[in-house]
Amino acid sequence: MADSAPAFYAELYAHLRKANMEMLAYVPDEALGPVLDSAEADNAVRTVVMTTEEEGVAVCCGAGLVNKRAVMMMQSSGVGNCVNAFTLIQNCRIPFLALIAMRGEFGETNSWQYAMGATTAQTLELAGFRVLWARDPAEVGKIVDAAADMAWRGNQAVAILLSQQLVGAKQL
Amino acid sequence: MSNNIIDRLDFIRDLLEDAGDMIVVTGIGTPGSNTRNVADRGLNFYISGAMGCASGVGLGMALARPDRKVTVITGDAELMMNVGTLASIAVARPRNLSIVVIDNERFGATGSQISHTAHGVDIAGIAKASGFPLAETVREQADVTRVRARIHANEGPYLCVAKVGANRRVAPGGGSRIRDGVMTKFDFQRALEASDAGQA
């Protein structure tokens, strides 16, 4: 991880590992870069790059079906790509954890991002997810702990939304 | 022009002969019901929705369980819906993953409208160009022996397109008995646990 990354990223990753995450499927986002860097430096975690987010949903479901704890990491724009794949989670009740960096929200300057940003949380909820927002760096660790317990012990689909209030709005 | 002489039921039955402890994932459509009809086993995971997800589910399983061979059996249109997964599989390069495409050149379940492969889209070619070490198209039933050997060689990722007849062809007395997803999951996981215990 870059030394310049805000401290909450290290805590976020440490808490995912404490919960035994062993696989990270992703479509990258700048705001998720430090998490990816940590995973790639970690021999105990397999990273899997996807061409589209719905593939990542399938991959994490496959891992979940054989009892491996996987996280799907993506930008909020990708949530719209996943809707039909999410039915796999709900139909088979597969424990599922998504880590999502928001766009089109707090301080966004690209107007094109607002349409998907505005519907991300509701799209997830309609698809059966429990949605947890992370806005305050001091709360990141406990939010990851709660989400991991809800997903992997409570057998739910859970999404952590990293607000732009937390990760910053990309300046264009 | 098509010269399809593979019978899809015979092909799947022969493909899964001696499947042993291999995990099989089937995609939505006739390939899944065919597999259930001719080679039902606990270690088959049948996806009856989420079109386009079968290869991704197989990839996740193969990476999570490198000690197990994983074979995805799916249709050409199901695979094409998320054809990018072939690129992701090639990058992840799981040796234990095989994809078998039952290619009837039709969207079979929706009324047999002709699909992309009928127009010449070459799925094995896409897989090869993506970086699969071995991808091929087979057109004869006799080829199934070689396909099975390649799956068992565990030197994947491997992809085989089996060109089959255009009819949906279901087994005598067998339809598409779709089971509840949660039940499907538990059946599969129980079989996997039993199989793991048997190996311990």
The strands making up the biggest β-sheet of chain A line up spatially as 2-1-3-4-6-5
Under CATH at level 1, the class of chain A stands as: Alpha Beta
**Cα-atom Rg of chain B, whole angstroms?**
15 Å
Structural class of chain A: alpha/beta
Q: CA-to-CA gap between the ends of chain A?
A: 23 Å
CATH topology of chain A: Rossmann fold
Count of alpha/pi helices of chain A: 7
Number of strands of chain A: 6
Structure, described:
The complex is a heterodimer of chains A (172) and B (200). With 172 residues, chain A is of the alpha/beta class. In chain A, 43% of the residues lie in helices and 18% in strands. Chain A has one domain: Rossmann fold (3-Layer(aba) Sandwich), CATH 3.40.50. Chain A has a six-stranded parallel sheet, sandwiched between helices. Chain A starts with 6 loop residues before the first helix and ends in a 5-residue tail after the last helix. The model of chain A has no long low-confidence stretch (mean pLDDT 96). Chain B is α/β, with parallel strands linked by helices. Chains A and B meet through strand 2, helix 3 and helix 4 of A and helix 3, helix 5 and helix 8 of B.
Quick structural gist:
The complex is a heterodimer of chains A (172) and B (200). Chain A is 43% helix and 18% strand. With 172 residues, chain A is of the alpha/beta class.
